[in-house]
User: Fold these one by one.
Assistant:
Number 1:
Amino acid sequence: MSCLVISNPRMMDHAPSETHPESPARLAAIEHRLETVPRLVHGMAEPARRSDIELIHPAAYVDAMETLRGEVGYIDGDTLTSPGSIDASWLAAGAAVQATRAVIDGDAQRSIALVRPPGHHAEPDRAMGFCFFSNVAIAAAAARARLGCERVLVVDWDVHHGNGTQRALYEREDILFFSVHQDPLYPGSGAVRERGAGPGLGYTVNAPLPPGMGDGAYRMLFDELLRPVADRFDPDLILVSAGFDAHLHDPLAQMRVSSEGFAGLCQVVNELADEHANGRLSLVLEGGYDLGALSESVAFCAEVLSGSTPPPKATPTPMEERVVSSLLRQHTEHRA
Ligand SMILES: [Zn+2]
């Protein structure tokens, strides 16, 4: 099975400060670790088309971001630009679209867009939380508008809630947004009752989990909540907002997922892609701030996407089972 990895070293030119956790070293560590994974095909990311970005972001917002091109700028305490940041953000959105196009056109069976800055906190008219353009929402919208897809499933397993993706897609019934995240944690949104609005009601699915949840809890949630959601929706494309900051070694959150655990989650979406979407699956990097944990987790996912045997299925501890069961009940009550 072929897996395409799309990136561009110019995304490392986004370097807002020496101490920022979303550092250029993240991409370097991943690229280095992926040298040990066989059967990957590498491709060079190009900047997004403005018309693709404007499927999600208003023209006035894109213009405002352009004024920061080449500049050192301050958006909020977490979100800063260096001279290479706006170039990098166009490449990040472009890589997400390219990776998506590759699996739709059949150039690759699976793909990974290794991008920064990440995207899932960027709202249509507001950069925040290290994010400038909503990379995955842009790719999903482009798949709908230009690439012939009917129904796109976005799975966000970054430990933070993907508020930007949710806001961009909240009233759409053609792109289903599923997020599992730690609660409480930045940015504070992502409650079960946030289920979409208008025609999109029921097409946003949030799974907030308390700190301390590990492989078994996540796997149970994917098997018992994501699977039935995907079966009902029947997507013809699956995109993953693949953040790795739910890792037990991550410094920004308190979850306990292992690198093997992420490979297990990747296997679930891999199977769902085979069952529903003719295998069309693309992972787009979001967060993940421990370099060793991040690079190992991406490598394990890349192995799953290239057809290696996945790790054994994780089972929940009794405590994890109680937590996830309670969450499943909340979902049943909100659907009623
Ligand atoms: Zn995150």
Number 2:
Amino acid sequence: MTRLERVMHELKTKGLTQMIVCDPDSIWYLTGVDVAPYERLFALLLQEGSQPTLFVNRLFYIPKDTPYPLIWHTDSQDPVAQIASHVDPSQPLGIDKEWPARFLIPLMEALPSLKILLSSDCVDDCRAIKDEEEKEKMRIASQINDKVILRAKDYIRAGVTEKEVAAFIDREYLKEGCEGPSFTTIVSFGANAADPHHEPDDTLLSEGDCVLFDMGCRKDRYCSDMTRTYFFKEPEEEYKKIHDLVRRANEKAESLIRPGIPICDLDKAARDVITEAGYGEYFNHRLGHFIGQRDHEKGDVSISNTTLTKPGMIFSIEPGVYLPGRFGVRVEDLILVTEDGCEVLNKVDKHYEILG
Ligand SMILES: [Mn+2]
């Protein structure tokens, strides 16, 4: 089945015959048309029994050979009225979760009897299962990430700042032909690593600090995301003990992955390892997230997600322990669910290492 056929099948399962898709990544996924619309309207109308139709501004560049019907508008026209005239008001309409209220509400006003349903899952659940082309792109993005983290480790020296290391990593991604980082590169020294989302600042590296890299690139649209935690010079014994613990939690979860496992069981398995060692309260986030064209896509690897794993899913496994004011450790890989197990996309060693 093509991507479009898979999405149309999902819509049918939900009792829908039409949907507006507006996430530009979803539109690219389904049509190959790549537009960054910013505040302007860009939408794909899917309707059973007809070709998907694109609603596009004259400013957007659309390749000449695009096989889908195009409905053009200018900045002085009302594109919502155009969409309203194409929608079948007698049938419920599925809406993408990303469609701004500034378009959705005028459409509801134009067609007051229209039944509207949130139906992003019909696209997002297809995007969660990667096809061969996507798997290959994600392997490549992770291979680049593996290469660049080794260079980042070499770059670590006394007196360097987090910002300098993060900028170095971002430059290396560009050298590798990436679009850039897939999210703001995280480099955290010492106590800063106790904040899982710390943004690099002017903190200088000191002896005994942990050095946490949470980094990913976007290459040919697809993202990587990996975390490794090292130490600069000899750390306290407890830090090493916690690093081993977090790595074991990561490995425990990864060892269980194969098709048909409730995703919540993976979170629980990793969490149990950390809780049994007495650090459960310091693992304060979900185990992971789905990833693809964006670093975070629909799909949590958390205690509340009972969905079963399926071949083709790619998500992160990233347990952590964060001791406020002291340090933090996280060990993160991306994994691909295969027919009989999983492929860990990151090959960089996970053990702690003393840098410098
Ligand atoms: Mn992540």
Number 3:
Amino acid sequence: MELTELTQLVGIMVAGAASMRAAISVASFAGRRYQFARQEKKYVAEFRSATAGIFQSRQIQRQEVPLTWQGKRKFRVVNRVYENYQQDICSFYLEPNDGRSIPPFRPGQFLTFSVPVPGQAEPVTRCYSLSESPAAGGYYRVTVKRLAPPEGAPEGTPPGQSSDYFHTHLQPGSIVEAYAPSGSFCLDEHSGRPVVLIAGGVGITPIVSMLNSLIAARSRREIWLFYGVRNRAEHAMYTHLQQLAARVRNLRVVVAYSRPTNSCRHNVDYHLRGHITEQLLRPVLEGRDCEIYMCGPASMMRSLTAGFKNIGVPAENVRSEAFDPASVAPAETPVKAPEHNARQTFQIEFARSGKRVEWQSGDGSILELAMANGVKARCGCRQGVCGTCAIALKNGEVEYERTPEKTPAPGKCLPCVAQPQSDLVLDM
Ligand SMILES: Cc1cc2nc3c(=O)[nH]c(=O)nc-3n(C[C@H](O)[C@H](O)[C@H](O)COP(=O)(O)OP(=O)(O)OC[C@H]3O[C@@H](n4cnc5c(N)ncnc54)[C@H](O)[C@@H]3O)c2cc1C
């Protein structure tokens, strides 16, 4: 199907969704009123008796479940499941090794892992989105794509350290350490507005957590999922998404394959050849007050961020998550223009490592400078989200390239998004 045809189809789906909502409300008001009144008493009695135990145990759970935990916590892998044909995306089901409850999280949040990569002196720190609805309860699920060396990289280039570790070493029974859920890319569960979920590649992980949460809550919101991948081999959570699309009447799923192969079935596996574009989204978004949640590669995030502006979507209606700093959508997290003179330089002392280096404009963040000079630094998201890199600022002042999502504690700074504003002494 061509893009124009699909755009028309999306338009028809929009109209269909509106008339469906109207029909549902008329039917529920007129047709079911009498029946409901008759059965109401019976239902109320049944509901009370069926839920009495649940409410009691929820109350107990509420007392037992701490809201978070400090530092690292050990988790046991209880299951692992490949999520695509290509078997480079795998879900890991984790239960706390201490046997205690796990705190709830918000759909869209992530865990930060400390990964003991063989051959590395220090564990590497990486974030992985929670990919299941919090309503699933009792376990956490993260879904990790094993990163192969980039196309054209010299022979011998290693795969991604952490993602390769997950795929190669984590089997049922393995232990992995994680920090508590965090992140502010979260579904607004109290809103009633239409929700438009947009995912590219492995960016489906937080999006599917949101989708599953909406469905677990039996939300009656109009839900759209636009999912872009290369082809069927890469298509993650295929069966799950197909089943939801068939079963949930207020959900519309549109899948775009950028590189379909001959075995990819058009209008079965995917609807559109190409990418998720402004043109495709326009009929759903134009003139409507929708909430948009987006996670995907840099190119998609950038072009759609510009597209939303063209369509007239208010910036506050769009929330996005970037898995790598290059994908941070410019409209959402503006990089501050350095306020200092372009030629100005500062002396940076990394006190713990006993190193003193010069920072100049163009050297990037303090974290980049530290790493380039062999200073050991713990970091996760590298975009001021996870807070893993927080260190004590012993002397001097920093400014932030973008406002950190996690405000550092007094006397600390987040070197991954900080640049010096004066000479500095840092506890690194
Ligand atoms: C908030 C957040 C949530 C996230 N959620 C998810 C998620 O749900 N699922 C998911 O899969 N990811 C997620 N990520 C991304 C994840 O955190 C990691 O960034 C990702 O797994 C890559 O880490 P790695 O250690 O495997 O790769 P790295 O070791 O960092 O390597 C990255 C790439 O560089 C290549 N490389 C290594 N050495 C060289 C070299 N010398 N020259 C050239 N190339 C080289 C590797 O082959 C690899 O392709 C998330 C990130 C954030 C910030």
Number 4:
Amino acid sequence: MFRHQDATRAAPPLRTRITELLGIDHPILAGGLMWLSDARYVAALARAGAMAFITPRSFDGPDAYRAALRDCSRMAGGRPFGVNITQSRRAAENAMVPAWIDMALEHGVRCFETVGPSPGRLIERIHAGGAKAIHKSAFVEHALKAEHAGADAVALVGAEAGGHPGTNELSAFVCGALALQRLTVPLALGGGIGDGRQIAAALALGADAVVMGTRFLVSEEIWAHENYKRHLVRQPAEASTLAMRASGNPWRVLDNATVRDIERLEQQGARQYAEFGALATGRLGRDYCYRQGDWNTGLLSMGPAIGFADAIEPAASIVTRLMTQAMQAASRLASMSGPVPAHGAGAVFASRTRETTA
Ligand SMILES: Cc1cc2nc3c(=O)[nH]c(=O)nc-3n(C[C@H](O)[C@H](O)[C@H](O)COP(=O)(O)O)c2cc1C
């Protein structure tokens, strides 16, 4: 039986189809974080036995991106790390995508998180370089198309996900259970995950990993301003809201003054991103919040999983706690095939069941 572990000691490795595919210890994918997934953060998660992804769009040009790949290889201590390839809806912004893949391959990257429409060509290029592709989307149909296009695994995020969760408003668990009825390749499930109990639940559902972003925003290795991280650890789950609903590309963010400004413009009829000017660009949040700590300025990707973040601490400590909680939840589930304990949640559950069936 699993016993509670010291949060500073690494949790034992767990084996799933995704941990085997990627050569990692824990079934945790730390999805790419625009502006924030730099070498230090990604390498910290790699060393902790998870998989994280550098975001090429966060860098000022190819030289800075190449330097990040080089630094991450050095800091990851031989552990695998990945690159996030988010395709824009505007074709002109995708010109560098093939080069980003090739540079990553040259630096030994063997795992890519792809996002956006028609990933077939990307997956072919990634496979030709001997790497694996995990395609992330918010729709079961898109996940099935990615499987058909050759993705080695898919990641599905529900409406709770920080960033762009899609328009269908289905929760992670609804998406996941529906997807698992039809998918063959392994699934990583995400959106709102911030406690290890949810990891155990996702694995019990049939997923082979989880994908997480928000919970790691308070990692020590995230370069964003300390004031912002201090603000985040005080936020409840309800501090996340969905902005830009009318645009067709909603954005799950921290509720702040910029969200109010966006709502005012929406009331005046604004719909397309361009109509919101600088307010709806990620650069505003980077310049004022991440660099200067002003958390009231910018659309700042964040989901309700922030409600689980109660301290600024090393990413490795967060991973250890998550996996400890997950193993405890799994062992509770396994114990349910035996006698019901006299005290505790199992006993309560059994007595409630008796009442409702009497
Ligand atoms: C600050 C932040 C930035 C993000 N940037 C990206 C990105 O550039 N590309 C991407 O594919 N996903 C991005 N995401 C989504 C995450 O990779 C991940 O799918 C999501 O955070 C999972 O849901 P959770 O936030 O509820 O854990 C971002 C999320 C956050 C919180």
